[in-house]
Structure formats: C-alpha cells, structure tokens
Amino acid sequence: MSALLAIRDYRLDFATFDGAYKVLDGIDLDVAEAETLGIVGETGCGKSVLAKSVMGLLPSPPAMPLSGCIEFEGRDLLRLKPREWQAIRGVKIAMIFQDPMTFLNPVFSIGQQLGDAIAAQQRAKPAGERLDKAGIRRHAENMLALVRLPDAETLLDRYPHQLSGGMRQRVLIAMALSGTPRLLIADEPTTALDVTIQAQVLALIDDLVRRLKLAVIMISHDLGAVAAICRRIAVMYAGTIVEDAPADAILQRPRHPYTQGLLAALPSMAGNQGALQGIPGSIPNLLAPPAGCRFHPRCGLASERCRSEKPLLRELAPMHRVACHHAV
Amino acid sequence: MLIEAAGLAKHYRVKRGPFAASVVKAVDGVDLRVRRGGAFGIVGESGSGKSTLAKLLLRLTEPSAGRITFDGRDVTHLAGEELRLLRREMQIVFQNPHSALNARHTIFDAIAEPLVVQDRLRGPALRHRVEQLLDTVGLPKLFLYRYPHELSGGQKQRVCIARAVALNPKLVILDEPTSALDVSVQAQILAFLKELRAELNLTYIFISHNLPVVRYLCDSVAVMHLGRIVEQGETEVVFSTPQHSYTETLLAAVPRFAADRSLATSA
Amino acid sequence: MTAALREARASADGPAGWRERHAGAIRQWRLYVHLFSRSFSSMLGLLLVVLFLLLALFGPWLAPHPEDALGAVKLSQRLQPPSWGYPFGTDEMGNDILSRVIIGTRTSLWIGLLVTGVGAGIGVPLGIVAGYVGGRWREAIMRITDVFLSVPALALALAIVASLGPGIDHCVLALAVVWWPGYVRLIESKTLSLREELYVEAARAVGARTRRILFHHILPNCVSPLIVKASMDMGMAILAAASLGFIGLGAKPPHPEWGAMISVARTYMPDWWWYALFPGLAIYLTVLGFNLFGDGLRDILDPRSRGR
C-alpha cells in the first residue's frame, strides 16, 4: 500500500546574514494511512522545520529547499502553488502547536474561532455543498463532542482565558480536525501542559486515531510522551534522521549511538542508577556542519569513515533503519 | 536543620469588580524542614504554589502568615540591610536561563553582579574570582565576554549556577532548573549539580514537576497541591508507597517507559 | 575558524584585549549597520540628517554671503528670483536667502536638540521612578503628566513664551515644558514591563539595591525606545520651533529663522514665490529626514526584526 506521505531526500537551507544554515540534510520518511509516527529530537535538530515544510508554512526566502520532494497522496507539496495549498492545508493536513494560549485569539469566543476555522475549510468545497451558519454551529458542537469537551453549547460562548490549558489544547485539536484531515501534525502538543493533563490529551489523540483512521506525526523532545501513543519513532539529529523503527525497538534495542545516549540520559523512577550520562559535546553549528556523519564529533565509535562519508539509512532489522556505519 | 518553615502562607487579594474582592491562597499553611547538606525536592503541577513557596523562603516576597527560621534565626520579617546580608546565604537558580540573564550584559557582568553588589570586589580581584567560578561550572574563559544569546541553554544555566554560588551560600533553591533544557543537557546539568553539592557543601531545595529527576537528585521530597503540602518524606518511600491520592495521581501520570525502563507501552 | 582560534589563544593567557572583550558588541553593530543600509528610506533619512547637521555646524563658513544673515541692507538687489549668484533668490532687504536658510539651520537644530534633550532629561527619570517604585509616587507623577498632556501643546508653549517675551531661550524653555510628558509615558510603561523580567528578580535575589537595578538593568533596556522617540521628536521639535517663529515668538530679528522667514514671506506671495518656498523646503526636509531616520532606527532596534 503506498504511503500517505512520502518524503524523499529532502534538503533545506536557511539563508541569513551569517550565511546559509544547512537545516535539513536529506530526509527520507514515510507515513502510512492511520499510522502514528513520533519524531524525536533535541533543540535545533530541525523537527519543527520539517513539520512546517509539510504544511507549507516556511516563508521562502529565507527557507530554501534544495532538493527532494514531499509527496502527499501522490502530489509533490513542494511544487504546489499558493492557491492549491488552500485545498490541502487545514483540509487534508492539519497541524496543532505547542502553546494553546498563544494560538487562540483572546478577544474572540471559542465559537467564533472554531466557526472561522470551519468556514475557511468550507471554501475548499464547491458552493452548493457549503454549510450555512446554523450548519457551522452544529459542526462546531460535534467537534467539541469529538474531543470530549462537555457542555458544547455553553463552551462555544466562552473565551480562551476562561478555559484551562488542557481544554484549550482540546479546542485546538477540534479546530484542526474540523476539516476531516487525513494527516495530523502535532508539534510538541503536550510540552506546555501539566503532567496529569498531558496524559489526558495523549489518551485523546490515541482515541481519535483509532476512531477517525487518522495518521499522526507527533513531534516532541519528550521520548516518554511519544512512546505513549506512537507505533513508530524516528530520531532526528542535526537535520538528519539517525534511526527509524517501531517504538518498542527504539526503546528496548536502540542501535544508533545518539539514540542510546538519549535513553541513557533519562532519569528513571527505579532505584539508584549512578551518574546520569549526558552526551559529550554540543550540537553542531549548522553554518559549517561536520563532514561525513554529523554526529561523529560526539560519538565514541567514530572512525575515519565516519569523518568523511555520510551514513545512509540502512535496514538492519525488519522496519528498523539506522544511519550509522558501526551499528549492528 | 538549615531552614524551617511553620504555617507559611501567602495570600493575594484579587479584585473582582469595583466592590468585591476575593483571596487567592497561593501558599496555604506549609510546614517543612530541610536538613543541612540534604537535597529536598518539592513536586507539584502548575498552580500548586511551589514557585511562590520558593520566593517566600528566599524572602523575595513577604509571607502573609507563618514563620521562617534560617540557620537558627527567625528571618520572617527581616528587611533592609539585614535582609540584604541574608541574601548572601541563600540563592536561587531560575527555570528559564534565557530570561534570567540580562541580554545586554556579558557573561562576566552576570557572574560578577553578586560579587560587586555584596563584596564590592573590583579590578583584578573581581576578574580572578569570576574566572574561578567559570572554571567551577566547567565553562571556558573564552565565554567571559560573550553575550547570552551566543550561548546554548545548558551553558546559560551553568552561568546562572555560577552566579548563584558566587557568594558561597549555604542554601541554593533550584526552581525547575532543567525544564527548559534538552534531555541530554539536562543529564549533564543534573550530574553536575550532584557533584557541586558535595564539593561546595550546599543544601538544595529542588522544585520540579518532573518526578524521575527529583528521584535522581533528592533524598527527601514534599508533594504540593493547591498551596498545601499533601505528603512529605524520604523520596524512595514516598514514590514507592504513596499515602495521598494526589501523589498516586502524579506517579500514575509518569510515562510508563520512564517508570520502569523495561517495557515500552504502545498499547 | 581562525578568529575563534585567535580568541581562544588570547583569552587563555593574559588580560583580554579591547577587541575580544567587545567582540560580541562589534558583531551586533555590524548587523545593525547592515540592516539599516538595506532600507532606502532609512538611508535617505540618514543622509538628510547628516546634511543638516553639517550645515548647522559649518553654516557660517559654507554660506556664500554670511553678512546677509546679520541684517545687511542691499536694497538694490531686493526680491531677485533664483539665479547663479543667488541660488535661492533674495528677500525684501536684498539678503541672500540661501545664506539665511543655511545659517538658520543652526538655530532650528539647536532648538530641536535642546528641547528634546531637556524633555528627555526631565521625562526619563520621572518615568523610571513612576514605573519602578509604583504606589503613591506613580500616582502623583502620572497625574501631573496627565494634566500637562491635556493642555494643547502649542497653546501652552505660546502662553509661556508670550509671558516671558520672545527669544530663543524662552522658546526652548516653553517647548521643553510641553515636551517632557511624552517621555514619562513611554519610559513608565517600558519600566513597568522590565520590572517583571526574570533578570531583575535575579538581581534582587542577589541583594542589589534599587539604585543599581535602575541604572544597571532598567535604564540600558530603555535606551532603544528612547533613541527612536528622541530622533522622531527632533523633527517635531523643529517644526514646533518654526511654528513659534512664524508667530514671531522665536528668534529675534534679524537673526535668520525659518519660521520667521516664512511669516514675512507670506506677504510676498505669490509673485515672489521663492521667498516662502526655500525656508519651507528646509523645514520639510529636516522633519522628513529625522522621521525617516527614526523609523529606520526603530526597524533595526525592534527585537523582532533583529537578524536571525
């Protein structure tokens, strides 16, 4: 079955006063229908930039796609004209962001904002099929029920500051799903939320995936949150994907030194684990990234080959790809 | 005991309309005792009052009720010069290293501040001490004249730690010091904090919402909820046999794979 | 790479040189210059400001007929149209208008500078105190500011000058009295937001006294909006000074002043059009220059537009 989203050898530079930042260096990734993929990486690895590329939200300049393609339902998103994006953005691919408060306008009620989102998606439909005002309100109530927010009627008339963080994130999810998209990109959806609320929102996303046959790309630096609902995890470092495998495999048998380092850096609830291990060094300056494998300056296994030849993703086990010369 | 609080409370009056006001009890009757040389953790979610509690203990704000005893002295209503002198003995590292440093000041200025303000150090003596502190936190001398925006999050937090230990305080309060940092950087900073405590003979009060981190660093812990401490005790005991339902809720919310590091979830 | 290596070697031993200590600041300035020079309007503003500053500084030496600025009377050459000898024409006393405009630059810019300087000098400290200390001080300062702001600026200035008598210093005094409230408003709101910054709290936690916090943390961060407002204000102050001069309350004749020149030129319109045109053009270009320059400064100092 062909993938819903197929990213092939995608390279992206960012042009600035200081020079060109080589932000993404050959991304190869697939997402199938109704699949949950987690993209994990630390600050500066390029995961948010990748997400925005898929949504076409990167202004170019300064973003300069160099090569590769991003195919969604067979069409290359990189070649779409602004007009053609209207039928995709919000309608087929939707995105939710990190901080729900800053993404809701404080002077408009929930009903107005949800209604606006629905109305915008209606424009993609032919005139005869569009919903009228009452229809939009009903649709809004349905969406709130979908994300399990009680009292949809009264909620529509409330304002963002009257809702808690978890409720606001649910409203954003409702807005994202109102166009019945096939792919949802969630960029750090739970980072700004409390631990107990995080669990609830993750459970909601899990439930929606099942009910709506929705494909989800969840981006986070929190391996725990991603592990909770994603079947597959891709680990990014400095603009490249270093490991791409089922969640179990990543967590129990990580093969790339960076993934191993990440897991070793996590404190656990179990008893004493001695000294916590960070990863020596720091992320590379993307103006002049290391030659060969971008991780080699920080890697204990680095050899001459690593310094000169960039490792490609190889399949070391079924569905388990690793980009490392030394991984087994 | 290095620092003790009894019945500590902080109430804020919030005006609701021209004639009505209500009281928000950010901290509502807190008792705690922190052993000298220990690492005391305070866990809770946002709105639990843990940050307000930190400000109360540091006397950055005046308590509405209760008593604070530091090193045997009653410091609850200290003011003016006495309060300034007290500041030498307890310091704080904030959560957000990006905004805890003045963007217009160099790293040198940032670390030198406590030394200039309290010890009136100048010239070569000041420079020497700042370099010493930079070395203590493992940063190269190269960084002395750099600006915060040229440093990474972890490096900025180290600068904040250097600033906090500049006057050789007895107590350091750490308010979510690693929440804004990446996991690998967090591990470095946590390991470093552990070493530093032993090296400089410090007492920590570590505030966080991240239970595994508190488990790693702290020997005792207090759980805060809505301005009150609902459970206190040794970390191992509280986390393995919680007595209060809220503690149980918090423990249950920790992602399972972090909880036991054996099996991943993917139900 | 080499620069970093040099830096590393130099800092490893011995005291850091001036260059190293300010490497970060130097880089920041280069970024500012680069951003500023990319905007045509900003560069135009800069050009005009520099032009008029030079005219103000070197006026007496640049003017072709400097004696005309002191009230020479050459009735044989009165009201001549622009020509090679007199590029801006002559006025009713036969004086070269170009020379008078050039020398008038000094007056106008001087007034503008003084007014802005005194206005900021009074307004900034008041604003900082009001914003940081709060409470009764803030109430008192802001209410007094409100009173001054509610009186139409020019009317108040007029009243003051009218009671004191004409003359540049009275003009400056009157305008400064009218100008300072704007600075209080700006600095007070900026200080209010700065007061809540984490690094201010950190300074307090370290035991810094209020004076240190104000001078070391708050004031430097107020500089950007202050510079932007001051440069835009220069234009407005010059315009206000010209307006006072127009009503005859500015510099005493025969000292050349643009507003006063336009006032006299009124009666010679429209036949001897050059008399009013050139002083008017001078006012226009000066104000335009400062406004564009101020706009350009705001664009580069606004953190949102700072180079990524």
Overview in brief:
The complex is a heterotrimer of chains A (328), B (267) and C (308). In chain A, a hairpin with a 2-residue loop joins strand 4 and strand 5.
Molecular structure report:
The complex is a heterotrimer of chains A (328), B (267) and C (308). Chain A has 328 residues and is α/β, with parallel strands linked by helices. Helices cover 32% and strands 23% of the residues of chain A. Chain A has a single domain, classed as P-loop containing nucleotide triphosphate hydrolases (Rossmann fold, 3-Layer(aba) Sandwich). In chain A, a hairpin with a 2-residue loop joins strand 1 (5-16) and strand 2 (19-31). Chain B is globular, with a radius of gyration of 19 Å. Chain B has 10 helices and 10 strands. A 6-stranded mixed beta sheet of chain B has the order 6-7-8-3-9-10, sandwiched between helices. Chain B has a 4-stranded antiparallel beta sheet with strand order 2-1-4-5. Chain B has 267 residues and is α/β, with parallel strands linked by helices. In chain B, helix 5 packs parallel to helix 6. Chain C has 12 helices and no strands. The chains are: A alpha/beta (328), B alpha/beta (267), C mainly alpha (308). Chain A binds chain B through residues 42-43, 165, 194-196, 198-199, 206, 221-225, 227-231, 246-248, 250-252, 261-262, 264-271, 273, 275-279, 282-283, and chain B through 45-46, 152-154, 182-191, 194, 209-213, 215-216, 236, 239, 249-261, 263-267.
List unreliable stretches of 5+ residues of chain B.
261-267
Mean pLDDT of chain B: 87
The largest β sheet of chain C comes out as: none
Decide which structural class fits the backbone of chain B.
Answer: alpha/beta
Under CATH, the topology of the domain at 105-302 in chain C can be stated as MetI-like fold
| Amount of helix of chain B | 25-40%
Instruction: Please tell me the CATH architecture of chain B by its name.
Output: 3-Layer(aba) Sandwich
β-strand number of chain B: 10
**Uncertain spans of chain C:** 1-14
Helices and strands of chain B, in N-to-C order?
EEEHEEHEHHHEHEHEEHHH
What is the CATH-assigned architecture of the domain at 105-302 in chain C?
Orthogonal Bundle
Determine the most extensive contact between two protein chains.
A-B, 43 and 43 residues
